[in-house]
Write a structure and sequence with these properties.
This protein is of the alpha/beta class. It contains 14 helices and twelve strands.
């Protein structure tokens, strides 16, 4: 079967699909991943075909201002919609659509008759269990959470409306509101596989049929590739260090964050590794090392703790390694994942990015590294995740659903 995975966003929105795609390819499928040009090397390194989607995700900078985020998202979606049909139409038997691409992919599926399945990294369906992931972590009560969830979907419909209008015209489809298309999918129990662990988000009992939590999809990496020599030497030279990194967040704030991180580490009497990321973190010393892009899977088990922005992928990787975390959420779904880690005890209470100081970070590091409760909770979460295989569950779901009408 020729399968096309369509995903868009920052690196954390793309990398998990490289592992999923590799698993589908190993099961005998032809797999392509459509995403923006920035991630072509990531896709090809996993042995997948690459198809280019237009647009610049523009997610990586700033400190999480919601109006700025909405403007950037609107511009990105408009660009994405303009070339979506070109990138995804040819030679496809099954479309796998991410959270960001599904509101566009539904219309391509309608126009071409190509079946589709959702492959989401975040829960988007309304539930009484928790509020929408984009609104933070404060529960509004079960009725309030469901109401807020429906409102969040309507806001997403509005965000995609201009791109959907142009795309349907391009595809020769009659006009239709994004909300109407979404409701048709919901009434048909359109299947959505959620690539996160039930250790963090158990499947809500009030979700409709067709929504499954299958376990995390892990970014593809070569399991035989050694860690860089300087990093391996540093890990072996003393007590397990703390990794501090903000992924694709905090662009332009590297100097301030690097100084803050080093002061916090030294106050807490801990060795540290700074992962440069989009912020450009950098510092050197006998007790501090700076690294670039290193896969989480081989590195995280060697750490005492991870300080991160609480992206879905990094949150899952830290828990998988049984390593406690200090979360510094910046924007979007990050406060949600930070809250989930704290709720199961695998992380300290989140430190919102705008309130981060060296003293707050040092205090939090002292707690997660030197108190047993956080590490024990992380180990318990890791044990539960080890029993899951999100990629295998998805391969089986594709096999099962591909014979049914999943348009």
């Amino acid at each position: 079967m020729r399968i096309l995975i369509a995903a868009a966003g920052s690196r954390g929105d793309i990398a998990p699909y490289t592992g999923l795609g590799a698993a589908l390819r190993a099961a005998g499928h032809e797999v392509a991943l459509a995403t923006t040009d920035t991630f072509e090397p990531l896709v090809r390194a996993a042995g997948l075909d690459f198809r280019a989607l237009p647009g610049n995700p523009a997610k990586g900078g700033g400190s999480g201002d919601k109006r700025e985020l909405m403007r950037a998202a609107s511009a990105f979606i408009t660009d994405l919609g303009q070339g979506f049909a070109d990138a995804t139409a040819d030679g496809t038997d099954l479309l796998l659509l991410s959270t960001t691409t599904a509101p566009l992919g539904w219309h391509l599926s309608e126009a071409t008759g190509t079946p589709s399945i959702g492959v989401y990294l975040q829960p988007t369906a309304p539930t009484g269990d928790f509020p929408p992931v984009v609104t933070g972590t404060r529960s509004l009560g079960r009725p309030g959470n469901r109401l807020a969830g429906r409102f969040a979907l309507r806001m997403t419909d509005r965000l995609y409306a201009p791109a959907v209008t142009a795309l349907r015209e391009r595809l020769g489809l009659p006009p239709a509101k994004p909300s109407d298309t979404r409701r048709r999918r919901e009434r048909a129990d359109w299947p959505v596989l959620h690539g996160f662990s039930s250790a963090l988000v158990p499947r809500p009992a009030d979700w409709r049929p067709g929504l499954q939590v299958v376990g995390s999809w892990w970014p593809h990496h070569d399991p035989d590739a050694p860690l860089p020599p300087r990093l391996a030497d540093f890990l072996g030279a003393g007590a397990p260090p703390v990794l501090i990194g903000f992924g694709s967040m905090a662009a332009g704030e590297g100097e301030r964050l690097s100084e803050l991180a080093v002061r916090a580490l030294r106050r807490a009497r801990l060795r540290g590794i700074l992962q440069s990321g989009s912020a450009g973190l950098a510092a050197e010393g006998d007790d501090v090392l700076t690294i670039g892009d290193v896969p989480h899977a081989p590195l995280f088990p060697h750490l005492a703790a991870v300080v991160h922005h609480a992206g879905a992928g990094t949150s899952a990787a830290a828990l998988r390694a049984g390593v406690p975390a200090v979360t510094v959420p910046v924007t979007a779904d990050q406060p949600f994942w930070a809250g989930r880690l704290a709720a199961i005890g695998a992380a300290d209470e989140p430190i919102p990015f705008r309130t981060l100081t060296a003293d707050r970070l040092a205090d939090a590091l002292d707690r997660v590294v030197r108190q047993r409760a956080h590490r024990e909770a992380a180990a318990k979460g890791a044990e539960r995740m080890a029993a899951e295989d999100g990629a295998a569950e998805t391969v089986e779901a594709v096999r099962r659903l591909s014979g049914a009408s999943v348009r």
